[in-house]
Model the fold of this input.
Amino acid sequence: MQTNTHLAVGACLGLTLTLAAPTEITVLGLCATSIGAIIPDIDIDGTGKKETKYIIMGISATLAIVPVLAGLVCMPEIFVCLKRTSFMSLTFSTAAKSTISWSYIAFLISTIMGFALFIGLCAFSNKTDHRTFSHSFMGMALFTFSIVLINPLEAGFFLVGYLSHIGLDLLNYRPVKLLYPKKRGFSFRLCYSKSRFSLNLLIFSVIILIVESIIKACL
Done:
């Protein structure tokens, strides 16, 4: 599928899962599922569509910044939520309660480690062929783990988006190497990435997004 379709489906899933949740959870979930839905195509450099890779990087970076900006401008609850549910804070919850400084340091350490691993995986994926490492179970597990280090709550949403990407790509004719580094690929061979089905799915997802946004605003 094309990047815009993956992004629309991921955003739709994120909003659906957090429709009844507090606004800060919706922002975090929506951004995380959207990133997860497009990041597997960071390996698209090998297909000759290098501009798509940069678009994905730009969208992902923007989506990662959105919660930070929202927290600084109008939604401080986001930072409270991120700190409370960070990997290190959950792992060392007893120690974190003893000193405020340790909780803050644990949050910083886990976040830096997660971002470093995520960037490293993106760099490695960019050197592999399309629909290999980043579209495999191994790649999905490692990418998700990098988000767990940043925030386990976001990791769950990220995984949903990632699964949606792989699931949609399996519908295409081009095989997806789920068991990478094994060479065997999997495909249901139902449609092409640029097809009427992809366009219809994009339109349907956007309509659902609009409807759910209205519902969310009314809650």
Remarks:
- DSSP finds ten helices and no strands in the chain.
